[in-house]
């Protein structure tokens, strides 16, 4: 693996390798918990805390964990930290805990966390793994927060529970439903594509194929998305 600067490791998760908007990982909790700004921040920071802690521990144990049982070991480590986060939320933020519901324990099998454990923490130093966890976690939190703010503002006219839009505004309930979540999600992907001029998505695998554990799950090699121009040229050459 090519050596990366500390700053690059930290900032990769914001745009270039954003786990949600570029790699399309963690789509289920993203759509389900981004109905409000508070929910988005809460879910994002909970996942970030688990991601940082699990990255550090897995990096420390990377030379001890047998290769054949590494995935179960990852899950045990992650589950331990998820339990801690779950108890903290239940004790100090009960309303947020009730709102997020089942998606807190489901952090255990979040493909973003498992993917970073396999792709990065298992191959890098503790400091680099911690920075990777911070960057990827904050990228995830930022995405959920922006989505939550947009959906809450348009769906209820509020932001973080405070009334922002006046009586003139008619809430659009569509944005609080699953179709509205998909719509906002799609628009944010389009925005990232415009900002990066298509570079963020170019040559990337998406969804399950973007997860470093894809081979372990499917036994197949991930297929990358090739630029349309190259595909046309190849077809022309074959003809």
UniProtKB/TrEMBL annotation:
Subcellular location: Cell membrane; Endomembrane system
Signal sequence coordinates: none
Principal location listed in the UniProt entry: membrane
Top-level division of the source organism's lineage: Bacteria
Keywords: Cell membrane, Electron transport, Membrane, Translocase, Transmembrane, Transmembrane helix, Transport
Keyword Ribosomal protein among record annotations: no
Pfam families: Rnf-Nqr
Bilayer topology annotation: Multi-pass membrane protein
EC supergroup of this enzyme: translocase
Coiled coil: none
Biological process, per Gene Ontology: electron transport chain
InterPro entries, per database record: NqrDE/RnfAE, RnfE
HAMAP family the UniProt entry points to: RsxE_RnfE (MF_00478)
Family: Belongs to the NqrDE/RnfAE family.
Assembly and interaction partners: The complex is composed of six subunits: RnfA, RnfB, RnfC, RnfD, RnfE and RnfG.
Name of protein: Ion-translocating oxidoreductase complex subunit E
Lineage: Bacteria, Bacillati, Bacillota, Clostridia, Peptostreptococcales
């Amino acid at each position: 693996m090519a050596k990366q600067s500390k700053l690059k490791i930290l900032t990769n998760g914001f745009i270039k390798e954003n786990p949600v908007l570029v790699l399309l990982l963690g789509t289920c909790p993203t759509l389900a918990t981004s109905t409000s700004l508070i929910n988005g921040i809460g879910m994002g920071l909970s996942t970030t805390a688990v991601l940082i802690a699990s990255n550090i521990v897995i990096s420390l144990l990377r030379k001890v964990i047998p290769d054949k049982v590494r995935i179960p070991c990852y899950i045990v480590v992650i589950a331990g930290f998820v339990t801690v986060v779950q108890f903290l939320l239940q004790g100090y933020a009960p309303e947020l805990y009730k709102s997020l519901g089942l998606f807190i324990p489901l952090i255990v099998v979040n493909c973003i966390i498992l993917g970073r454990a396999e792709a990065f923490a298992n191959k890098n130093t503790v400091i680099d793994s911690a920075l990777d966890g911070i960057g990827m976690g904050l990228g995830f939190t930022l995405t959920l927060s922006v989505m939550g703010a947009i959906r809450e503002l348009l769906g209820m006219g509020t932001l973080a529970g405070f009334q922002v839009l006046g009586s003139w505004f008619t809430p659009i309930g569509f944005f609080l439903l699953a179709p509205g979540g998909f719509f906002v999600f799609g628009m944010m992907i389009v925005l990232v594509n415009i900002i990066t001029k298509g570079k963020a998505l170019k040559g990337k695998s998406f969804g399950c194929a973007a997860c470093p554990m894809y081979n372990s799950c499917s036994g197949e090699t991930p297929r990358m998305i090739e630029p349309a121009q190259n595909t046309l040229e190849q077809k022309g050459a074959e003809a």
